[in-house]
Amino acid sequence: MSECTTCGKPLTILINSDSESEEEGCTQANASSEHEVPDSVELNCGCHFHWQCLLDAYEITRCPNCSGDILNHNSSGEEQILCKINNEGGLQEGFDILPVLKEESYLKAFPEERKARAFLEFCADGDVDAILDLVKNGDDEDFNKNGDGEGATKPIDFLRYQDPQSSLDSGLHVAIRKGQEDVAWLLLLLASSLEPHRFPSDVTQAAKTLGPVRKSQIGKVDIRVLENEQHMTAEELARKLGGRWEAWVEGQILTPVFDGILPVVL
Fold first, then answer.
1. The pLDDT value given to residue 1
2. Using an 8 Å Cβ cutoff, are 49 and 5 in contact?
3. Residues 6 or more apart whose Cβ sits within 8 Å of residue 125
4. Phi-psi map region of 242: left, alpha, beta (phi>0 left; psi -120 to 50 alpha)
């Protein structure tokens, strides 16, 4: 099949590689960089979709076109939806698309959490700059408000967000699990009452560049207090993992503070 069962268009997509060159101080885009690549997802029922068309039309366990049951189980009894994907990266057979579909389905139901989920991905990847951009450009108290009155979305403090789809891990849990020390320091700086003298000098210097991004922590929960689904704080997770985190545990850097939250001033 050469067409998407949802939109009826060919199973390709135009990609612009954004090839640019600078000449005499001007940046010029190379129009010839645009090219066509495959964009096909074939479900086990035989129906084909563009990647985005499938995400938009996804129904829990059935094909959105023929209503065939596309869910199966692996040898451990876990649910999966195996498909064949063909895109600019090549052909991939036996790809389990269920986690992606579940994620997209969840975000459709709770669109206000999309930014918070992106924040957790940045924590996992160690992308400090992306986290800072979120803090600077999307107020952690005010973003994702859909206006006032009926239908308004409750604001989410993404610095303290806990993922209901992933064991209620906070960003600090994720950073520790992925070995991202720079992210862990940043989150302690932005969302804990850790004493100023406990931070390394390079973190202290970086904090001075944040300016108004840094806010008082009065009345806010210290991120070190948060427990995941296993009732583990970030400190308990660090103690379990050991390695690079042993010094953090021994130095009580991750020790939760349950009493009044004080502002961090560097």
1. 53
2. yes
3. 178, 180
4. left
Residue 31 DSSP SS3: helix
Tell the burial category of 151 from Cβ atoms under 10 Å away from its Cβ (0-12, 13-18, 19+). exposed
* Contact between residue 41 and residue 51 where contact means Cβ atoms under 8 Å apart: yes
What is the reported pTM?
0.63
pLDDT tens, position by position, 6-51 = 999 999 998 876 544 344 444 444 445 778 899 999 999 999 999 9
Phi and psi at 93, nearest 5°, equal: -100, 150
The per-residue b/e assignment along 238-254, b for 16 or more CB within 10 angstroms, e otherwise, is bbeeeeebeebbeeebb
- Continuous segment of H or E residues that includes residue 59: none
> Per residue in 168-192, pLDDT tens?
999 999 999 999 999 999 999 889 9
pLDDT tens for 40-67 read 999 999 999 999 999 888 776 889 899 9
Residue type, 50: H
Strand 82-87 to 90-96 pairing: antiparallel
Strand 79-80 and strand 72-73: pairing?
antiparallel
- Give the burial class of 97: count Cβ atoms within 10 A of its Cβ; 0-12 exposed, 13-18 middle, 19 or more buried: buried
